[in-house]
Amino acid sequence: MRIAWIAAPVAGMAALVGALAWSAPEEPGRGDIYRQLELFADVLARVEQDYVTEINEEEAMEAAIQGMLASLDPHSSYMNAADYREMQTQTRGEYGGLGIEVTSEEGVVRVVSPIDGTPAARAGIQAGDYLTAIDGESIVGLTLNDAVRRMRGEAGSSIVVTVAREGTDPFDVTLQREIINVRAVTARVEGGDVGVIRISTFNERTGDMLQDAIRTVRRDTGGRLRGVVVDLRNNPGGLLDQAIEVSDAFLDGGEVVSTRGRQPEDVQRYNARRGDDMAGVPIVVLINGASASAAEIVAGALQDRNRALIVGTDSFGKGSVQTVIPLQGGRDGALRLTTARYYTPAGRSIQGAGITPDMEVAARRIDAEQIARLQRLGVSEADLPNALDNDSGAQRRAVHVPEDMPPENWDADEDYQLKRAMDFLRQGTVAERLRQRAG
Length: 439
Prior knowledge:
Blueprint: H1 2-6, H2 13-23, H3 30-50, H4 57-70, E1 77-79, H5 81-91, E2 94-97, E3 100-105, E4 108-114, H6 119-122, E5 130-134, E6 137-138, H7 144-151, E7 158-164, E8 171-176, E9 178-181, E10 185-190, E11 194-199, H8 206-221, E12 227-231, H9 240-250, E13 254-260, E14 267-272, E15 283-287, H10 294-304, E16 309-312, E17 320-326, E18 334-343, E19 359-360, H11 368-377, H12 416-426, H13 429-438
Parallel strand pairs: 11-12, 12-15, 15-16, 16-19
Antiparallel strand pairs: 1-18, 2-9, 3-4, 4-5, 5-6, 5-7, 7-8, 10-11, 13-14, 13-18, 17-18
Helix pairs in contact: 2-3, 8-9, 9-10
């Protein structure tokens, strides 16, 4: 009902408010809500009548709805019909654009993560970058949907994006739009005995692709499989059901994740089926500060269930669930609304805190000056405007000098975190640490 009120045509707003006020049951505080709706209708009428130029009523209403939702948390938003269709295409893993996951922070577009193999990733766009202009025109202050719409266009066309990055002057990057066919999962074998399974996103095909990846590493190691690295770095998340399916592949039954909504009874628990597809083979999960949402569900489940050693740096800390609610069957778009928090099998809320790795390993060397810059910049979910708090009081660790960093002469083109993960598997560290944790 409330959604219907907000989405009502502009011309009928005043009449609708009057009808609601007349027929409303007398509940404490309800009168204030109707007075606010009357105020909104009055403001809208004044704008329509007296603003210096004629306004687009539909755009004005969308902006009002977006403003309300943005005041709730960083992830609730309204999608008009075109945006909703585009979102449905994106979750199927094929869409047009740059291949970049973004959020909005104080009116500025912030990069959560570029997606592997896309124009954004190839151009060197990094997690934490701010995008301030497109083709020389500022996008600061635009809604996130509007900014994303400007980034998209016909495949083959070029776009110039202005990037603001901490420690450097703003610079322009020229990108060519492509049809993005997201390969959610890839697999290879390193050294003949360690499988590396890279999961870059959680779309509708991730679970099926993971099964193909598992078969690939088993086949290519020829029975000599010593362990598997599951790489979730820079994975911005995606579909909850796919996170459950991925976790299921590595667990032998038991809880994967639970979600808790507004009411105490709004609790759902999701369990793995019996049967570990890796048959107990040691696993290392790689995470970093751009591992978010569904990626954190998988890492948290395998950590709490003592199935994998988590290696890398603290994850992003997005521990909320968004439900997509079609409006008028999708004809009027859809509401993306935060409806629950999710919890690991041990009952930990990841919201704002993230997953802390068992073995902290940095991708590159970092010093006190860089730490100070990162603290000013903000690097996690908790730094986003209106971010939900962690209802159990957990907080993300402060940025600090990692325990394990590449040596000073380390080749920047070599993946230090992956090397350490493979060392842990080959040296028996994973099995030993999991035994200690179980004991």
